[in-house]
Structure formats: C-alpha cells, structure tokens
C-alpha cells in the first residue's frame, strides 16, 4: 500500500494541500545559565526553512545544533532559555512567545519530532500499538480507528509489516525498524514539520541509506518541511536540498546543498568537507582540521568563534576576526556565509565588477 | 602527510590555564562537605558522637554514683537529663554507653563492607567456579537467621564487649552487599577500561583494586555509613528485647530498663527513655546528611567546582 | 604476521520455546595480517567482525580453527602461555568514553601497565614516567596538559588518543581498531585515522581495521587488504582499492552503494543497488547466506552455498555463483 491509497483519508489530503509550513527563525539566542553566567549555546541565528523542503543542519558536538532543534520545538530545558529572537512556524505562531501548553499541543500535531537515538525512545514495556493509543489519549484524538489506519499506512509506506509492528515490543525490532517506528510516531498525527535529530547515528550503512531514502520519500509524499540535524555531512549531502552549517553556536554557512558542497566558502565548511575520506582519488588528500571544537565554556567571547582553527586567519590575521563576530553575508543570491575574509573578498569582487 | 596534533590552544581557554592537581581523599572530603551546610552539620554531629565515644567512659567513674533520693527525676542543674531508676545521672549513662554502641556498629559495618565488597568484586570479576561457589556461601549467609544465632551465642558469650557484638553482626550481615556489588561488577566488567586492563595483562588483584573498586567506592561508602545506623538499630533492638544478657551500659540497655521500670506507664523519668532514643535519631539524621556527599567525594566529575 | 584459518565461533542466543538457539558468529574465517600491514574487515553490525577482533585481542575464545601469531599456534598453547602473545595484539575500543577508567587520571592509566612492563623487563622505575611522556607524544598529545587530567576533562578525540597511547605501553605488534572513530567528532576523526597510519609507517604496527565505513578503511590502508564479511562468512576479499573499484559480490555492491553521495561533488554510481529486504535474524541457513536479500538471486543460490573462489590471479576472491562487476561507487564530477 502506498500513500496514494491512503490519501482518501481527509487528514492526509489536508496535509498535502497545505504544502508544509515555512519556518522563520530570526536572531535566535539560547543561553544556558551556568555558575551565574549566561553562556550562549546558540547565538543570533537566522534560518529559514522553505515550505516543502529538506534542510540539513550539520554541526559537531557542542555546535548548538541540538539546542536549535529543541528551541524549534519549544522544548529548551532549564538552565537554558531563549534570550532573544523569534521562531515563526506557519500555522502555529511564534514558538518563543506561545504559551507552553499551546506549544505542547503543536508538538506531535503540527511538529513531528524524531529523537536522537530513537532506537531507545520507545517504552520497552509496551507494544508499539499500545503506545500509539497512549499518544491518541494525550492528544485527545477521538477517532482511534483512523489513527491506527494512518499508522499502518505510514508503516507500510516505509516497507514494514504494519500488523506485526503494532504488536511488537521494542526489543523485537532492529535499529532501522525502531527508527522507522519513530518516524511513524512523529507523523501519525499529521505533522507538517518534521524534525529529525541524528536519524542515522548508530545505524549501519545499509540501514542508513534505507532510512535516508524513506525520509526523502515521506517528505515528498506528504509535502513536509523537514529539518535533519546531524554531525554527518554525508547524510546531509545525500538527503537535503539545503544545508546549514553550525559551529560554536553560530550558523557559519547556509545555502543549496550542491552549491555549498561544490564550492564551500566558509573555512570551517571547507575544512570539514576536506576531512572526509572518499572512495576515489588519493586518500592522502583528505586533511584533518587542526584543534578541536569549542565547548560552552571555551567559546571565545569576542570575534569569530572559528579563528583558532582557521587556516585563513592563520594566514591573513585580519583584525576583524579578533574584534567582531562576523554577521552572515549574502553571496551568490541564495547563500549566506559568516566570515570576515569571505565578506571582504566578496565586496572587493563587487567593486571590481562595478568598475 | 598531515600530522595534526589535537593539542589544546593556550589562550582564552580557562581549562588550559589551570592545571588540575590531584588531591588526597581527606582534602576531597573536606571540599565536598563544605559545599552544603547540611553536610557540615551532619559531619559535626558525627564527630561529636565519635569524640564522646572515645573519651566518654573516662569522664565518669566506672561505677556511677547513685542517689536513692532522686529516682527517675526530671532534668535539673545537677542532672541535665534527669536520673534513672537507681538515681544515676542519665547524661552520664548516655555518654558512657556511647562507646559500646558506636564500636559495635562501626565494626559490624566495616566487616560487612570489607567482606561484602571483596567477595562481590572477586565473584563478579572472576565469574565461573569462583563466582558460583562464593555466591552459594553468600546465599547461606543470607539465610542464617541472625537473631536465633545471637540467642544461641548468648549462652556462651555475654556480649560484654562491643567487639563480640560487632563481630557477630558483621559476619552475619554482608550477604546483601556482596550480591549487589557482584551485580555491579558484572556490568563494570564489560566496560572498555576493564577489558583493556585485562588485555594489557594486569593482574586480577590489580584490576579489582585499581579499576573496579574506585568505581563502586561511592556505593560502598554509602553502605558503610548507612550500615552504621542499621547496626545501631539492630543491637539496640536486641538489648531492648532483653533477650541478651548484658553487663555493660549502653543505649539499648537504657531503653530496656526504662521500659521495664514503668517509664512508659508512669511518664516519670521520661528523659531516661528519650535520651538514648533521640541520640539514635540524631546520629541517623547526621549519617543521612553525610551520605549525600559520598558520590561527589569519589567521582572526579562531580568533585569539580 | 597474524594468520587465522577456519576460525569458527557460535553463541547461544536466548529465545525459542525449546531452549537456546545457536547463532553462528564466524563460519570458518581465513585471513592473514602481514607485519606492518593494514587489513580491514567491513560488514554490517552483527556480521561477526567485532567478534573476530575480540578473538584476536584474546577477549573471546573460538570454537574451531587455528590462530597463528608469529609462527606460534595459539590453539596449541596453554592459557598461561597464550596470554603474553595476545598482549601483543591490542584492541582499540569503539567508545573512548567507556574505554578509560573515569576515576583515574591519564597518568594513573598509563603508569600501571608501564610499571608492570618495567618489572618484566628489569627497567628502573624512572623509566615509567619518561615512557609515559614518550607514548603521549607519539599519539600527538601534550603530556603536561593531559597527564594530570581525568577522562571527562578531555575531548573524545583526545580520549581516543589516550586509549591508543595506553595500547602502545606494551609495544604491540598489532592494533585492532573496532569502529575506532565512529564516536568522535567529524573534524577530529581524520586526525585519529592519520595517527593509525603513522603508527603503521613509523613503528611498523599492523592495523586491523574493523568498520562499516569503507571510506575510512580505505584511508587507513588503501594499500592493504579488504575483507567483506556477511553473517560470519567472508564473501569477498582482495586488495582494498581493487575491491572498491571492481566489486563482484552483490553484497559488497550493496554496502558500497549505501555510502552517501556528496551531491555537487560526486555522481552516484550507475549500478547503485540495495538489498531486497533488511537484515533479519531469521534468514535461511541453507544456500548462499545473502540469497534472501540479493537482487540477483537465482535457483542455484538457494540450494548451494558458494565458497571463496578467485577472480583471475590477482588475489581477489569472492563467494558468488554469478559474479559481475558493477559500478556502484560514486565518481567525482569533473
């Protein structure tokens, strides 16, 4: 059974016609209060998720990518809090100013979330079907039959035996199956915005490829706006149309995936792509990035957060890199890069073009 | 070929400037205790009881003077906690009885912890024959009915010495701890660092002492502390029941005599009954306050400021 | 030189009303790790590659077969005599967070195996601290910074380097790296892989690299050998670059197809394929082990199990009745 067969369901049709919400994140800062000091895990981020697109958010540990995803769900945990900015989601409103109760309702109903390590997020003592009914109860769904139908059609769409899945306990499922059940839970209430946190970590290559193609297919079928949060640039390269790269709480580069991969502008993006061994060419061409990613306590307070590891800064020693945090500069129309060197180069090229 | 060093960069990184120094157990303990006033209060009470336990019997004559005119009297200047049914000072009884109670409980707890941890660690790490035979012994110890054993022993021993009491309580009490230490060891054993130690050829005693023990130390320390209070209760209980013959003064004997002399019926000499009860309560409370510090003392991650 | 032949291992698995079922983890595995060489084992989780690594490190026994280290047949030795041989093969765990004792500083972690070594080789005690400094420098760490610290004060990359330094304290002949970088930040991974390469070229340490990521295996040992293992059987084997460029077994092709394509930099291989169904524990035992998932399965595959057979005389071997080279690996654009 495919989604087309299930689309007689009024709920599904509504989803497809809606075309997915767009998401506007403006100047978002999330700070954690530690030992009396506010430390920004996410600082001044502007990000737009176009309706019906898949965006990949890449970053290492401590880059703030998970915090950003939590902010999007209105689920930042204490001692963290959103200090500035807004997150406007179509059909939901500004998550930052919305009452917690309304956000909780939107979670599941409009925003579907697949946890990091979804493999372990199922209740081991209850069958999947039982947990589906719990979900129905917590979201006041009256028509349980159509919910179960919806769940079955999703599971079958993902290549699973729906009947068996609903009767299964967590331990009876493989990692890839659990991940798919997680996606089913995120979408069963007809969420239009899907957030996946590290959807393929701890999966094998083949299961990973399978999950990625499912994410792609389900997103297209249901016209979802999807955000894939991951540390693996390969995952983003495979699945997403747009890519956003985070480092030290900043969004250092964003743009269409193919363009960013082909011609990365930010020194971090460039270094990251160069550090991935490939299957062709001279293996020694891969180069490690020196230094290590900053943590909350070690992020420089002024200037560019990447400069300690930056080859451009090592060469040019621009004073701006030490003094101010670079703001995103639009480049080639659709791309944004937060780098002083790239910005000044770009201005120069602009001037020359005009002259 | 690129050779990248994962070196820390000296600069505005706080962690690069301060090189941590490894400090001793007592230093860590002191630091962790100071973090919360409740812990300091707990430590203070425990120290006071220990000091009383040590010097208490030397403060008073071996045979306490009695005043037959003052039997089961209330508190007064001369007798801050009143007197007992023979007219002896309750405070003096309490102070001189502390040593017995504490020594017996401490010895019992120490024996429990040493036997329980050693047997649990060895059985869990070696598994196989050592494990199954040690666990059979443990099961046996767990099923020894401690109370009847004490009754039988009392025909031989008079339990005049706290050491005898502690020995019996300790030897019959380690089974539960051995079982839980073993199950913790079984899970630790699968951790990478224990496997690595085996792979490096380090000896079993080494692995147990240096790799396993430090990781269960907080648990063992908590058991030691809580063990002291449980064993105070059990010995006081034994004396209170009056099933054991007694020679020495201690808190349990006080309660037993207070009840047998009708304090609960008449209400006179209430402090004779309350003094040991409240002491036990106070000591238990102090230990509970201290237990919360044990995790931080032994875990370097929690120890940091 | 480490050689294994016909290594078999089975585990009892729980479940089943009629008692335990035996799961065959390794089915007669043959391999050879030359001195200073690099050998990679790739496959999905549960294929037996981790078990093989643990057998080599002496953490697991095997049921049948021979393991020969430098001419010494380990199966013939008494357990006491076997131990020092296994010590020369050190396992680098996947998880650097659990591979270090959280209650011990790096100094304590290195001191214990080094003291043992000093006693065994009659070195003075002062050697211990100078050697600790040396091994840390070898793995690219600053001893002054690292020695007094506890594991939780170090990054994942630094921890993994400490783990490698600890393995070096016994002057190992071979390192078994089991998914050694999968839990490390992407920007630091290459540093660790590069370290393994350097240890190989500078100290002549052999590397047995166990992973599901073919590209990292290639980085560590493009000049080495690649073994593709499926449900305990080696199904393809040969020089790493040859197998990657000209895979003939459908399973190898599925594995290589699954590697994400860097769209914009690469084009997907034209013959990219995927298994017809996911891996499950209940797959058939008769015939080719991959038959139930193979897109090209034929009658013969279900009846008979193919054994390793050579392709030409280049040392490239496979276990498939219908081998065919397919272009599944992404190619660079331009």
Walk me through the structure.
The complex is a heterotrimer of chains A (355), B (305) and C (334). With 355 residues, chain A is α/β, with parallel strands linked by helices. Chain A folds into two domains: 184 residues, 3-Layer(aba) Sandwich (Rossmann fold), CATH 3.40.50.300; 92 residues, no CATH class. In chain A, 39% of the residues lie in helices and 21% in strands. In chain A, helix 5 packs across helix 6 and helix 8 runs parallel beside helix 9. The N and C termini of chain A lie far apart (61 Å). Chain B has a single domain, classed as MetI-like fold (Orthogonal Bundle). Chain B contains 14 helices and no strands. Chain B is globular and about 75 Å long. Chain C is of the alpha/beta class. In chain C, helix 3 crosses helix 4 and helix 4 packs across helix 6. The longest helix of chain C has 18 residues. The mean pLDDT of chain C is 90. The interface between A and B is medium-sized, with 12 and 13 residues.
Secondary-structure blueprint of this entry?
The complex is a heterotrimer of chains A (355), B (305) and C (334).
Chain A lengths: L2 H4 L3 H9 L4 E12 L2 E13 L4 E5 L6 H8 L7 E10 L3 E2 L5 H10 L1 E4 L13 H11 L5 H14 L4 H5 L8 H13 L5 E5 L7 H17 L3 E6 L2 H7 L2 E6 L2 E7 H6 L4 H8 L36 H6 L2 H5 L5 E3 L3 E3 L2 H15 L1
Parallel strand pairs in A: 3-8, 3-9, 6-7, 7-8
Antiparallel strand pairs in A: 1-2, 1-4, 4-5, 9-10, 10-12, 11-12
Helix pairs in contact in A: 5-6, 8-9
Chain B lengths: L13 H4 L7 H10 L2 H23 L30 H37 L1 H16 L2 H9 L7 H10 L3 H15 L2 H8 L4 H38 L9 H10 L2 H4 L3 H29 L1 H4 L2
Helix pairs in contact in B: 2-13, 3-4, 3-13, 4-5, 4-7, 4-8, 4-10, 5-8, 8-10, 9-10, 10-11, 10-13, 11-13
Chain C lengths: L1 E12 L7 E13 L4 E5 L6 H8 L7 E6 L2 E2 L5 H9 L1 E4 L13 H15 L5 H13 L4 H4 L9 H13 L5 E5 L7 H18 L2 E6 L2 H7 L4 E6 L2 E7 H6 L4 H8 L8 E2 L31 H5 L5 E3 L4 E3 L12 E2 L2
Helix pairs in contact in C: 3-4, 4-6
Number of domain units of chain A = 2
**Terminal CA distance of chain B:** 41 Å
Query: Which regions of chain A have little confidence, pLDDT < 50, spanning 5+ residues?
Result: 1-18
Q: Give the CATH H-level superfamily of the largest domain in chain A.
A: P-loop containing nucleotide triphosphate hydrolases
């Amino acid at each position: 059974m495919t989604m087309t067969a299930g689309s007689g369901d009024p709920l599904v049709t509504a989803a497809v016609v809606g075309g997915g919400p767009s998401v506007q994140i403006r100047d978002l800062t999330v700070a954690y209060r530690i030992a009396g000091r506010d430390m920004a895990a996410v600082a001044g981020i502007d990000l737009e998720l176009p309706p019906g697109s898949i965006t990949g958010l890449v970053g290492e540990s401590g880059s703030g990518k998970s915090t950003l995803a939590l902010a999007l769900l209105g689920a930042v945990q204490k001692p963290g809090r959103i200090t500035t900015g807004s997150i406007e989601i179509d059909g939901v409103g500004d998550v930052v100013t919305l009452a917690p109760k309304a956000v909780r309702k939107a979670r599941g109903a409009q925003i579907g979330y697949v946890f990091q390590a979804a493999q372990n997020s199922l209740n081991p003592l209850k069958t999947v079907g039982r947990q589906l009914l719990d979900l129905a109860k917590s979201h006041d769904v009256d028509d349980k039959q159509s919910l179960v139908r919806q769940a079955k059609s999703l599971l079958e769409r993902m290549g699973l035996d729906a009947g068996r899945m609903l009767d299964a306990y967590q331990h009876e499922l493989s990692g890839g199956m659990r991940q798919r059940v997680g996606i089913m839970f995120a979408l069963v209430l007809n969420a239009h915005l899907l957030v996946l946190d590290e959807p393929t970590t701890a999966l094998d290559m083949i299961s990973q490829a399978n999950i990625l193609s499912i994410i792609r297919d389900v997103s297209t079928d249901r016209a979802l706006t999807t955000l894939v949060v991951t540390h693996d640039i390969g995952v983003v390269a495979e699945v997403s149309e747009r890519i956003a790269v985070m480092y030290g709480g900043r969004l250092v580069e964003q743009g269409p995936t193919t363009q960013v991969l082909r011609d990365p502008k930010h020194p971090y993006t460039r270094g990251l792509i160069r550090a991935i061994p490939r299957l062709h060419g001279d293996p020694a061409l891969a180069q490690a990035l020196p230094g290590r990613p900053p943590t909350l306590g070690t992020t420089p307070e002024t200037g560019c957060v990447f400069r300690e590891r930056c080859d451009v800064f090592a060469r040019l020693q621009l004073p701006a890199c030490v003094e101010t945090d670079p703001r995103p500069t639009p480049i080639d129309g659709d791309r944004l890069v937060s780098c002083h060197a790239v910005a000044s180069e770009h201005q120069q090229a602009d001037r020359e073009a005009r002259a | 070929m690129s050779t990248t060093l994962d070196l820390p960069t000296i600069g505005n990184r706080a962690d690069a400037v301060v090189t941590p120094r490894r400090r001793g157990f007592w230093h860590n303990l002191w630091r962790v205790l100071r973090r919360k006033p409740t812990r300091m209060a707990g430590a203070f009470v425990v120290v006071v009881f220990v000091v009383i336990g040590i010097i208490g019997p030397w403060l008073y004559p071996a045979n306490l003077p009695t005043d037959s005119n003052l039997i089961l009297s209330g508190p007064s200047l001369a007798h801050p906690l009143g007197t007992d049914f023979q007219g002896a000072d309750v405070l003096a009884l309490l102070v001189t009885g502390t040593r017995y109670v504490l020594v017996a409980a401490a010895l019992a707890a120490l024996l429990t912890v040493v036997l329980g941890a050693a047997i649990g660690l060895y059985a869990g790490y070696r598994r196989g024959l050592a494990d199954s035979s040690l666990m059979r012994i443990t099961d046996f110890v767990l099923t020894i009915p401690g109370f009847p054993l004490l009754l039988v022993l009392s025909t031989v021993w008079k339990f005049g010495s706290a050491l005898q009491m502690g020995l019996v309580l300790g030897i019959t009490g380690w089974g539960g701890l051995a079982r839980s230490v073993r199950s913790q060891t079984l899970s630790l054993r699968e951790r990478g660092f224990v496997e690595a130690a085996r792979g490096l050829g380090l000896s079993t005693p080494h692995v147990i002492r240096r790799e396993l023990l430090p990781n269960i130390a907080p648990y063992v320390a908590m058991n030691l502390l809580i063990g002291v209070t449980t064993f105070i209760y059990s010995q006081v209980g034994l004396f209170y029941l009056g099933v054991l013959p007694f020679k020495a003064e201690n808190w349990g004997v006080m309660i037993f005599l207070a009840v047998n002399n009708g304090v609960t019926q008449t209400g006179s000499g209430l402090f004779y009954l309350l003094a040991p009860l409240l002491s036990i309560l106070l000591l238990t409370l102090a230990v509970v306050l201290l237990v919360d510090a044990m995790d931080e003392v032994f875990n370097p991650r929690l120890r940091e400021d | 030189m480490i050689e294994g032949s016909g290594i078999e291992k089975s585990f009892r698995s729980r479940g089943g009303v009629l008692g335990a079922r035996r799961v065959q983890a390794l089915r007669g595995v043959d391999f050879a790790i030359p001195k200073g060489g690099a050998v990679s084992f790739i496959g999905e989780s549960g294929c037996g590659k981790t078990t093989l690594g643990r057998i080599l490190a002496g953490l697991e026994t095997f049921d049948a077969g021979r393991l020969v280290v430098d001419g010494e047949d380990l199966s013939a030795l008494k357990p006491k005599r076997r131990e020092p041989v296994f010590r020369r093969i050190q396992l680098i765990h996947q998880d650097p967070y659990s591979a270090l004792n959280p209650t011990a500083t790096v100094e304590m972690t290195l001191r214990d195996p080094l003291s043992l070594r000093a006693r065994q080789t009659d070195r003075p005690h002062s050697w211990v601290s100078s050697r600790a400094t040396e091994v840390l420098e070898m793995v690219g760490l600053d001893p002054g910074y690292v020695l007094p610290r506890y594991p939780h004060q170090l990054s994942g990359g630094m921890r993994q380097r400490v783990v490698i330094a600890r393995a070096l304290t016994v002057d190992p002949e071979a390192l078994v790296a089991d998914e050694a970088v999968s839990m490390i930040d992407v920007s630091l991974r290459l540093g660790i892989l590069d370290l393994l390469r350097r240890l190989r070229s500078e100290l002549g340490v052999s590397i047995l690299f166990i992973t599901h990521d073919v590209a990292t295996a290639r980085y560590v040992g493009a000049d080495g050998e690649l073994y593709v293992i499926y449900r305990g059987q080696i199904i393809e084997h040969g020089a790493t670059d040859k197998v990657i460029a000209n895979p003939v077994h459908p399973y190898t092709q599925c594995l290589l197809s699954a590697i994400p394509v860097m769209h914009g930099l690469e084009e997907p291989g034209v013959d990219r394929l995927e298994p017809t169904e996911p891996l499950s524990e209940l797959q058939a035992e008769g015939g080719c082990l991959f038959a139930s998932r193979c897109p090209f399965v034929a009658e013969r595959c279900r009846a008979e199990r193919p054994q390793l057979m050579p392709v030409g005389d280049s040392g490239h071997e496979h276990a498939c009745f219908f081998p065919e080279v397919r272009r599944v690996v992404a190619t660079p654009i331009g």
